[in-house]
Amino acid sequence: MDAVSEGRLAQVNPTLAQKIRQVADQMASSGVQLRIVQGLRTKAEQDALYAQGRTTPGKVVTNAKGGQSMHNYGLAVDMVPGIRGASPWQPNWNDKDPDYQKMIDLCEQQGLVAGARWVHIPDVDHFQLGGIPVTPTPAMLACLVAGGCTAVWQQFITQPPASDAPVTATARTTNPADKTTSSS
Ligand SMILES: [Zn+2]
């Protein structure tokens, strides 16, 4: 993906980033470049966004407070396809376009949850990791506040087995997450 997108992917969960790159590669092979328009949005940034139109100037743009969006956990991205043949790259915001639908289909094949499917307020460019609750739980928020995104990933996300870095006994005992994990 382009440098802007890769910079954003570097801040989100590696499993999510890997799935997004696979979708991007598949789309690129059919002539469409995807771009990440939003990756990690910190809890503080989310709080500021929530305040907009409520206690600060501007119009309301979100109903999610800090900790209520998967973006706050590095577990979601917003992504848009480029207009076919456009140079320089231009975003294709038409979610009825076959290229847009193809992007959504490929993401779902990767097991990602597509905001386009949300019933009440579809969020067509939003994709988040599956296999976890669709909205962050209080336990996830507590973990985020205590240890940041990485702590949430360690405790709530099943990571694929590392192929070239076996976990040693030393590494396990020095991992602070092990001491607080009770059921996962
Ligand atoms: Zn989003």
Structure description:
It is a single chain. The protein has a 4-stranded antiparallel β-sheet. The chain has 7 helices and 4 strands; from the N terminus they run H-H-E-H-E-H-E-E-H-H-H. It is α+β, with helices and mostly antiparallel strands and 184 residues long. The chain binds zinc ion. Residues 38, 71, 76, 78, 123, 126 line the site of zinc ion.
Task: Summarize this structure as a short list of keywords or feature phrases.
184 residues; alpha+beta; Muramoyl-pentapeptide Carboxypeptidase, domain 2; four-stranded antiparallel sheet; 7 helices; 40% helix; globular; disordered C terminus; binds zinc ion
Give a summary of the structure in a few sentences.
The protein has 184 residues and is an alpha+beta fold.
Strand elements, count = 4
Residues in β-strands, percent:
5-15%
Number of helices: 7
CATH class of the largest domain: Alpha Beta
Structural class: alpha+beta
Hetero groups in this structure are: zinc ion
Low-confidence stretches: 167-184
Write the SSE topology.
Layout (H helix, E strand, L loop, with lengths): L2 H7 L4 H16 L4 E5 L4 H9 L24 E6 L16 H12 L3 E2 L11 E3 L9 H19 L12 H5 L2 H5 L4
Antiparallel strand pairs: 1-2, 2-4, 3-4
Bound molecules: zinc ion.
